[in-house]
C-alpha cells in the first residue's frame, strides 16, 4: 500500500495539477481518484471528478508555465500520505510551496487536503 500511496502523490502532482492538456488531466483524474473524491483546498471544497477537473484546469490556466516539483520524499502511513512540493517556473526557486495530504480507498485518492505555505515576500 505504501508504494501505491507514493505513486498517487507523485502522479497527482504532475498528471493532475501539473498537466496542461485537458484530456490527459481528465484521464488521470479518473484513474487516480474515486468517483466521490473530495478536494479540500483554500478556496473551498470540491466533490467528484467534474469539480476536481474544473478546479485543477482553472488553476493550471492561471500559471501554465509553472512546474510542480516534490520537496523531499513522500510519506505514507496506513491509508494516508503526504508530499511537500513547490511551484514556479522551471529551473527557478518556487514561487509558492505546499503540502498535499491524501486519504486512499481501494487504491485511489478519496480525499486530498492541500495546505499552502506563506507566499514568499
Automatic annotation (TrEMBL):
SUPFAM superfamilies, per the entry: NTF2-like
Pfam families registered for this protein in UniProt: SnoaL_2
Top-level taxon of origin: Bacteria
Domain SnoaL-like as annotated: residue spans: 15-111
Annotated protein name in UniProt: Nuclear transport factor 2 family protein
Lineage: Bacteria, Pseudomonadati, Pseudomonadota, Betaproteobacteria, Burkholderiales
Amino acid at each position: 500500500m505504501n508504494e501505491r500511496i507514493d505513486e498517487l502523490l507523485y502522479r497527482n502532482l504532475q498528471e493532475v495539477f501539473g498537466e496542461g492538456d485537458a484530456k490527459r488531466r481528465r484521464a488521470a483524474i479518473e484513474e487516480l481518484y474515486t468517483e466521490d473524491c473530495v478536494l479540500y483546498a483554500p478556496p473551498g471544497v470540491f466533490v467528484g471528478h467534474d469539480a476536481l477537473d474544473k478546479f485543477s484546469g482553472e488553476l493550471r490556466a492561471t500559471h501554465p508555465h509553472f512546474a510542480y516539483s516534490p520537496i523531499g520524499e513522500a510519506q505514507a502511513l496506513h491509508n494516508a500520505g503526504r508530499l511537500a512540493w513547490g511551484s514556479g517556473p522551471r529551473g527557478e526557486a518556487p514561487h509558492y510551496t505546499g503540502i498535499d495530504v491524501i486519504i486512499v480507498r481501494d487504491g485511489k485518492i478519496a480525499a486530498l487536503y492541500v495546505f499552502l505555505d506563506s507566499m514568499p515576500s
